Amino acid sequence: MTRFGFFSVGRKGKGIVLNKLAFLEIPLFVGLDRAHKAALLQQFTQLSYRAGDILFEEGEFGDSLYIIMQGKTRIYLGSGNNETTLAILGEKEYFGEMALLTGDPRSASARAESDLVVLKLIKDSFDRILYEHNTLAVQFAGILAKRLAKVNRESSRTAGPPPEEPALPEPEAVEEASTAEAAAAVRPNDRRAAAGAAARSRLPVALCMAASFMAGALLCYGLQADGASTAANLWQWAAVGPDSSPPSSLSATIADGAAVEVPVAVYLPKDASAAVSMQRGVELAMADLQASSAYPRFRLSPDYRGDGGTEELSDGSAAPAFAIAASLPAGQASASVPTLLLDGAAASAAGRSVALGIAPGVYAGEVAEWLARQSFGKVAIYYEDSAAGRQFAAALEKAADRKGILVADRLTRISARSALTAVIGKWKLLETEAVVVYDSSGEAAPEIGSGLQAAGARYPLLAGPAVPAAEMMPAYAGEVYGYTDFAADAAAGGAAAAAFADKYRAAYGMAPSRIAAAAYDAVRLIALSADKAGSAEPARMVEALKAAGVWEGALRTYNFNAGSETGSGSLVRLLKLSPKQGEWGE
Ligand SMILES: Nc1ncnc2c1ncn2[C@@H]1O[C@@H]2COP(=O)(O)O[C@H]2[C@H]1O
């Protein structure tokens, strides 16, 4: 099987002419007149595949919708002997819409079942078309309800009820219930009931899009949540046990006189500005260590590795005693090197890894509390395209649902300003009441804020865990709130946070970001661990770090002895930007 092995690619307008009549007959476009259909046609690209070619795989980032013009497509989960077919779709049917509507990764894989010709529509065009042609939302709702009902029917046949969930009704009753849910959804007051019904479906995450502009039709989506498995993978990796043996070159203990070298692998994130911030945090800490000669028996030697940590740890350079990574380095599932994760929860990073940040799930819980206190009934989430972002979005959706708040839209990556305009149009249609942003660079909220401003929308905007600099936000006339664990953001940090912020400003002429502070802390914590352990031997350093107790850092004050820092209610700070002064306050 080849991937993307299409044998001819029709260019816009050229190959499509052949399919013009067929295009006009696609049921999805039934509500559009001929002129609109003809205009729409220009947005599509025609592609051809051979039988067996894979169009995309489960879990991938999805940026296109496909309509089948000729042939068949198999939609399936798993691979090899574990492959399960969800559907075989034929001419004039479409697939790939879920990732576009939710921003989640592909919920299933798609393979050409026969030689195949499809029309492909990229996300920007999809968002715009959905916004411009409301009737399409109703078509999507219809197909979606059918797919969901079929999945429900089949899963109730093949599996018993999952643990801790109410038993499903019989297959026929499920279909009725789906119809009832759809009917309930048409009455605006029952939208929450419908959202609850979707959330109770067998699929772990449900998304309901209220398209209230058209007779209150509601799209209820049942989707495979990726958040849970991402989190499981993350912590499985983080929980690499103390029994994995350290690199032999590191069993060095202190020799008389000379400082012991502690090689540190620094995995820079893919995002360029975050990578610069992280590197600066490391450099500042190194300079501080040298200047203060705080731990004279040890000399840290950072070794930068790029590309989001996808390089192998054992790539020929000195085996590191410790690693620092923004978040889970991909492909490091069995790393035996202890790692300080700048994101994630201290409580969840077991074994040899220690996370410095607050877990995205903890943020999500606090944000849901706040949303409930403000009496918001329906919100949209924009989250960064990372494991932490996905965890946050999934956890917020769950926590919000428990409080009767509907997450009307959940998306990641807005590729262009025009796409943002379309997204805001969608939020308006969905009657979103607030927008929650999860972004560790602090750059997304100002972007979204200025988009909202331009569109004349004034949703309260909640931004974190890196809150944007106050001076980046005043263009937005709506209310802006921040949530963070970064003491400097919260302007309530201790002496360590203030001293770090001063040093950073002096060195680089700007305020430090959250990731810079976390990287600064990470380097100092590694030096402290070696000093406490009296050794550069990884296992001993980890033990020493975990017994370090309360330690005031630049990012925040950590409690390494606490065992669990989650849910204490005091870890996450909520701030409000006062529009007149352009300042954050608690
Ligand atoms: N149970 C199903 N029946 C039919 N199509 C499905 C089913 N589940 C997923 N799909 C389609 O497969 C696609 C996989 O990628 P997306 O999640 O973007 O969008 C998905 C739907 O278009």
From TrEMBL:
Recorded family membership: Belongs to the leucine-binding protein family.
Region (Disordered): 154-173
Claim: Transport is one of the keywords in the record: no
Keywords: Activator, Receptor, Signal
CDD domains per UniProt: CAP_ED (cd00038)
Stored SMART domains: cNMP (SM00100)
Gene name for this UniProt entry: crp_1
InterPro entries in the cross-refs: BCAA_transport, cNMP-bd_CS, cNMP-bd_dom, cNMP-bd_dom_sf, Leu-bd, Peripla_BP_I, RmlC-like_jellyroll
Biased composition (Pro residues): 160-169
Transmembrane portions of the chain: none
Organism domain of life: Bacteria
SUPFAM superfamilies in the record: cAMP-binding domain-like, Periplasmic binding protein-like I
Organism of this sequence: Paenibacillus konkukensis
Cyclic nucleotide-binding domain segment(s): 28-130
Protein's name in the database: cAMP receptor protein
